């Protein structure tokens, strides 16, 4: 299996051209390639597949083999991949995902694609649609007990479910201990991604993230969008926010007129190779 290792500010995935749909067990492949000791090492697997609704289809799998609906960092690298490989010459692409069709504007510097701006769609705030088992229609700055401690949380879906909580210090959080308790909390039937946010000013926030199926990652695109939306809803930030993550910065814009959220950031190729995985290639 030929692959390309890419990352968006440290949120890294293994990319495979699967336009012929040869990968028979993507979950097994994802778990194998994601292993940082016995595989390639990544937060998951992303497949390039054909689409009858858009230019391409993106299928993404977390490190534990579970399938995700959308990945903001991943889709930027996805778009760079198809352009770099000559699969398209378009600088504006449509990509079918499990959370709908996304439009991506590639950023080119000289002959190189260095990043992209992604139309992430409208944030979902209704708890039933996130999904979240909750007594009110929305969950904005409401108390949630997690492992015996009360957190003020805001729930947002950007294709994936997110719960955002504001903290005074992101560095001191024992995220590897508390993260799983959020992820598997009984109010989230499909598990949840958790963002711990520190407000720097109205245009800048700092974030650490625990992703369902992958644990702590250096960045999360949908999480950055959810955090920016939550920061605005709670009166902490405006509609254009720089989100500072462990791997780097992302720019999130929440358009007041259309309600759409836009995510901008880099896309980087790390290396390419070939790996043999018995029993999963048709």
TrEMBL record:
<feature type="binding site">
    <location>
        <position position="193"/>
    </location>
    <ligand>
        <name>substrate</name>
    </ligand>
</feature>
<feature type="active site" description="Proton acceptor">
    <location>
        <position position="220"/>
    </location>
</feature>
<protein>
    <recommendedName>
        <fullName>Diaminopimelate epimerase</fullName>
        <ecNumber>5.1.1.7</ecNumber>
    </recommendedName>
</protein>
<feature type="binding site">
    <location>
        <position position="62"/>
    </location>
    <ligand>
        <name>substrate</name>
    </ligand>
</feature>
<feature type="binding site">
    <location>
        <position position="160"/>
    </location>
    <ligand>
        <name>substrate</name>
    </ligand>
</feature>
<dbReference type="GO" id="GO:0008837">
    <property type="term" value="F:diaminopimelate epimerase activity"/>
</dbReference>
<keyword id="KW-0963">Cytoplasm</keyword>
<feature type="binding site">
    <location>
        <position position="11"/>
    </location>
    <ligand>
        <name>substrate</name>
    </ligand>
</feature>
<feature type="binding site">
    <location>
        <begin position="221"/>
        <end position="222"/>
    </location>
    <ligand>
        <name>substrate</name>
    </ligand>
</feature>
<feature type="site" description="Could be important to modulate the pK values of the two catalytic cysteine residues">
    <location>
        <position position="211"/>
    </location>
</feature>
<feature type="active site">
    <location>
        <position position="71"/>
    </location>
</feature>
<dbReference type="GO" id="GO:0005829">
    <property type="term" value="C:cytosol"/>
</dbReference>
<dbReference type="InterPro" id="IPR001653">
    <property type="entry name" value="DAP_epimerase_DapF"/>
</dbReference>
<dbReference type="GO" id="GO:0009089">
    <property type="term" value="P:lysine biosynthetic process via diaminopimelate"/>
</dbReference>
<keyword id="KW-0413">Isomerase</keyword>
<feature type="binding site">
    <location>
        <begin position="211"/>
        <end position="212"/>
    </location>
    <ligand>
        <name>substrate</name>
    </ligand>
</feature>
<dbReference type="Pfam" id="PF01678">
    <property type="entry name" value="DAP_epimerase"/>
</dbReference>
<comment type="pathway">
    <text>Amino-acid biosynthesis; L-lysine biosynthesis via DAP pathway; DL-2,6-diaminopimelate from LL-2,6-diaminopimelate: step 1/1.</text>
</comment>
<comment type="similarity">
    <text>Belongs to the diaminopimelate epimerase family.</text>
</comment>
<keyword id="KW-0457">Lysine biosynthesis</keyword>
<comment type="function">
    <text>Catalyzes the stereoinversion of LL-2,6-diaminopimelate (L,L-DAP) to meso-diaminopimelate (meso-DAP), a precursor of L-lysine and an essential component of the bacterial peptidoglycan.</text>
</comment>
<keyword id="KW-0028">Amino-acid biosynthesis</keyword>
<comment type="subunit">
    <text>Homodimer.</text>
</comment>
<feature type="binding site">
    <location>
        <begin position="72"/>
        <end position="73"/>
    </location>
    <ligand>
        <name>substrate</name>
    </ligand>
</feature>
<feature type="active site" description="Proton donor">
    <location>
        <position position="71"/>
    </location>
</feature>
<dbReference type="InterPro" id="IPR018510">
    <property type="entry name" value="DAP_epimerase_AS"/>
</dbReference>
<feature type="site" description="Could be important to modulate the pK values of the two catalytic cysteine residues">
    <location>
        <position position="162"/>
    </location>
</feature>
């Amino acid at each position: 299996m030929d692959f390309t290792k890419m990352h968006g500010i440290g949120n890294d995935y293994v990319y495979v051209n699967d336009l012929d749909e040869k990968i028979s067990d993507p979950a097994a492949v994802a778990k194998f390639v994601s292993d940082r000791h016995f595989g390639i090492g990544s937060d998951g697997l992303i497949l390039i597949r054909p689409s009858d609704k858009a230019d391409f289809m993106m299928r993404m799998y977390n490190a534990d083999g579970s399938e995700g609906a959308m990945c903001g960092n991943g889709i930027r690298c996805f778009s760079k991949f198809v352009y770099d490989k000559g699969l398209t010459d378009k600088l504006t692409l449509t990509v079918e995902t499990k959370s709908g069709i996304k439009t991506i504007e590639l950023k080119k510097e000289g002959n190189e694609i260095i990043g992209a701006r992604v139309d992430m769609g409208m944030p979902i705030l209704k708890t039933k649609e996130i999904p979240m088992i909750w007594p009110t229609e929305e969950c904005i700055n409401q108390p949630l007990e997690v492992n015996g401690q009360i957190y003020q949380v805001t729930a947002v879906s950007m294709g994936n479910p997110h719960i955002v909580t504001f903290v005074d210090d992101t560095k001191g959080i024992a995220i590897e201990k508390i993260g799983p308790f959020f992820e598997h909390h009984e109010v989230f039937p499909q598990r949840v991604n958790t963002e711990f946010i520190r407000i720097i000013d109205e245009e800048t926030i700092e974030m650490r993230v625990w992703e369902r199926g992958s644990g702590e990652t250096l960045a999360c695109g949908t999480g950055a969008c959810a955090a920016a939306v939550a920061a605005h809803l709670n009166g902490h930030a405006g509609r254009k926010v720089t989100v500072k993550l462990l791997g780097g910065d992302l720019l999130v814009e929440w358009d007041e007129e259309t309600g759409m959220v836009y995510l901008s950031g880099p896309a980087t190729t790390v290396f390419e190779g070939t790996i043999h995985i018995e029993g999963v290639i048709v």
